Amino acid sequence: MGVEICVEGLTKSFGHQVIWQDVSLTLPAGEVSVMLGPSGTGKSVFLKTLVGLLRPDRGSVTIAGQDVTKLREHELYEVRKLFGVLFQDGALFGSMHLYDNIAFPLREHTRKPESEIRRIVLEKMDMVGLIGAEEKLPGEISGGMRKRAGLARALVLDPEIILFDEPDSGLDPVRVAYLNQLIVDLNAQIDATFLIVTHDIASARQVPDNIGLLFRRELVMFGPREQLLTSDEPVVRQFLNGRMQGPIGMAEEKDAAQVEQELAQLGEREGRNAKGESGPKAATDTGMTPRLLPSPGLARPPRWEAIAKREAKPEAKAEPEDEAKPAHKTDQREAAVTDI
Ligand SMILES: Nc1ncnc2c1ncn2[C@@H]1O[C@H](COP(=O)(O)OP(=O)(O)OP(=O)(O)O)[C@@H](O)[C@H]1O
Ligand SMILES: [Mg+2]
């Protein structure tokens, strides 16, 4: 199960505003990938382009042998059955009870009897902790509950591809922990291909197989979790450590001299030079975070063994060609660092 998504040379603009350009990456079948990036860098636009809701200017999105960007509306309708999507705003129907909202994809895309629909809807509502709220309208519940209703709705068709746009925003920390466990468990059970947009760094560190980072209209990096977590790339380090010092500014416009000064000060503290190159003490904020494991009793996906071996190898970081599917673009990465 799980379907690979292959994105090549994707560029999207609205009018004169280029959102991102020449994005190429492969979301491996059955793996969990996370997309990070400062607010406004086009993460939500990227997800909408993958499902064919937005058309790119150039490039392709290949899923099960079909280029989504070229499909007509009725063909897209078929491909979308592969997807479970949680949009950033939840996108629930305001006049429908939660039960009907969650049942909607089943009624729209399947011919299942109501008794079967009821079983599935209640199972998914239970999974996200919404049992008892079936009769509520979206306007009558909290933002976190709406988010969880959107999650349940995204899962009812047992999708092969799951796209979650900030599933954790608006959730309290305990529920974020439950959500992360739910994602890992779901992946172990149904082996769907996941792409999750999040601003939650702790989740990004523990949950995925792969991490990508969008910044300044480019995909700065995309690759196996350990490659990003141990990266010396200043943008990646700044983002994964959630700090002010570095190329990313409040409005994305930082003066080059200021960045250099900040990195130099940081480097003095951590033993790195102004370009962020490692010194002897540089390991303070890079490094691996233990992976979140499936709940006891759930089988680990077969790929886990290979990943565990790879992560255990200290030299894995330095040799991306050693990785299973490196999608990381060195030239763009360098452009993002020097073009400041
Ligand atoms: N339909 C649209 N028409 C015109 N511009 C749009 C449209 N959708 C998004 N944009 C613009 O594209 C840019 C990227 O938006 P997007 O919502 O993808 O950012 P994001 O990375 O998801 O941000 P956040 O982390 O805040 O959710 C923004 O400047 C936004 O105004
Ligand atoms: Mg967004």
Automatic annotation (TrEMBL):
It comes from the Bacteria. Keywords: ATP-binding, Nucleotide-binding, Transport. Residues 302-340 have a biased composition (Basic and acidic residues). One of its GO terms (molecular function) is ATP binding. Residues 5-241 form the ABC transporter domain. Residues 267-340 are annotated as: Disordered. It holds the Pfam family ABC_tran. PANTHER family: INTERMEMBRANE PHOSPHOLIPID TRANSPORT SYSTEM ATP-BINDING PROTEIN MLAF, PROTEIN TRIGALACTOSYLDIACYLGLYCEROL 3, CHLOROPLASTIC. This is ABC transporter ATP-binding protein.
